[in-house]
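A.,

Following up on our hallway conversation. Structure tokens first:
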């Protein structure tokens, strides 16, 4: 393997690499361009020849970064990730990443261009209104690009991952919100005649996510034992709603719930059965615990909109449906339930996630620790003879 240097203009050189011959004996070459001195061209040529001999050489890609990301979406994202995630990735690529760095040749994408892209996005990258994107949105793009470029290295399209040299934005920490007991009582009183009441009560009693709640089927609920199994979640994309398995193994879990909720669910099932008999063939029997009146799946987006509208019209403090999950976890911790048990009920993949989110909601925990250690010290520290 060898390389040749050819001067193309003032401070411009071409490095031509001989990389072998094809099946017909025709010599194969790869051309690289360099702007600089002759000495720099010689050094670059030597580097490329060394890579050829070591088997680490990456030929210049025939497409730019935007074209690569399109191929990455087709070959990896759309076949390996959920439809919702693939949809989100495509939006980020089309709306933000390709307009900024899509025209840069894949092999020439450097950390500096990516870092500049992040800075501009934070300063004024929002498409819907004046101002920049949030740090969280830019972090999503950083994670997307990191995985995409990692695959470009694995697929021998690049020799290094340019994201390794990029500093990702650190979003401002947002503490979760949990409802107080008076808030919960006011919410349930306001929901007295609403079809949202039982889903809300179930979320408070179990900590289920919205998608898990709307995908819950009677076949996974044992009212006699007051237990349910989380086996599916419901997600919504532009193509409609779809059921899918939880993302992690820990997301598939068995949950016990209170007898009070069991009785509420028992009455709900009886009412649902009456409605199914009344509608007959017009009822779409998908065995869903929480469905529309005709038995069809309840759109997660419509569910959230209905809940937000109800909260707004009821003059209740502003909170999201997801805050009911936070309320469930916070109350368990407040009552002294082990953080490991709380983590398992929430379906977290790591207990560290639970600690990071809820570790601060243990009122009086430090004071309790002091009293505990004080009692222990009183028993083990020898008494002074002067006391």
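Then the amino acids I'd put at each of the 387 positions:
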């Amino acid at each position: 393997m060898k390389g040749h240097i050819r001067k193309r203009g003032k401070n411009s050189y071409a490095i031509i690499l001989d990389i072998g011959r094809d099946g017909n004996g025709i010599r194969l070459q790869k051309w690289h361009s360099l702007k600089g001195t002759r000495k720099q061209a010689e050094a670059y040529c030597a580097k490329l020849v060394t890579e050829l001999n070591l088997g680490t050489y990456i030929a210049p890609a025939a497409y730019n970064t935007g074209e690569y990301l399109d191929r990455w979406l087709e070959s990896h994202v759309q076949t390996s990730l959920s439809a919702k995630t693939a949809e989100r990735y495509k939006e980020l690529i089309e709306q933000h990443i390709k307009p900024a760095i899509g025209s840069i040749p894949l092999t020439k994408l450097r950390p500096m261009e990516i870092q500049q892209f992040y800075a501009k996005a934070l300063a004024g990258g929002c498409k819907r209104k004046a101002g920049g994107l949030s740090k969280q949105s830019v972090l999503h793009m950083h994670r997307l690009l990191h995985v995409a470029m990692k695959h470009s290295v694995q697929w021998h399209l690049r020799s290094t991952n340019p994201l390794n040299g990029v500093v990702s934005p650190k979003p401002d920490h947002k503490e979760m919100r949990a409802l107080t007991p008076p808030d919960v009582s006011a919410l349930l009183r306001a929901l007295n005649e609403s079809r949202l009441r039982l889903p809300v009560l179930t979320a408070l009693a179990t900590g289920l996510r919205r998608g898990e709640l709307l995908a819950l089927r009677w076949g996974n609920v044992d009212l006699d034992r007051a237990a349910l199994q989380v086996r599916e979640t419901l997600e919504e994309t532009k193509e409609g709603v779809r059921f899918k398995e939880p993302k992690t193994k820990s997301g598939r879990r068995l949950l016990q719930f209170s007898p009070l909720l069991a009785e509420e669910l028992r009455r709900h099932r009886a009412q649902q059965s009456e409605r199914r008999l009344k509608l007959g063939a017009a009822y779409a029997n998908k065995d869903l615990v929480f469905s529309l009146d005709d038995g069809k799946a309840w759109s997660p987006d419509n569910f959230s909109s209905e809940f937000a509208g109800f909260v707004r019209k009821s003059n209740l403090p502003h909170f999201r449906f997801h805050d009911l999950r936070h309320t469930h976890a916070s109350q368990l911790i407040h009552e002294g339930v082990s953080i490991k048990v709380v983590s398992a009920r929430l379906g977290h993949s790591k207990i560290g996630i639970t600690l990071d989110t809820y570790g601060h909601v243990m009122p009086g925990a430090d004071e309790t620790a002091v009293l505990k250690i004080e009692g222990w010290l009183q028993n083990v520290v020898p008494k002074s003879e002067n006391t």
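The mean pLDDT is 88. Curious whether your intuition agrees with the design.

B.
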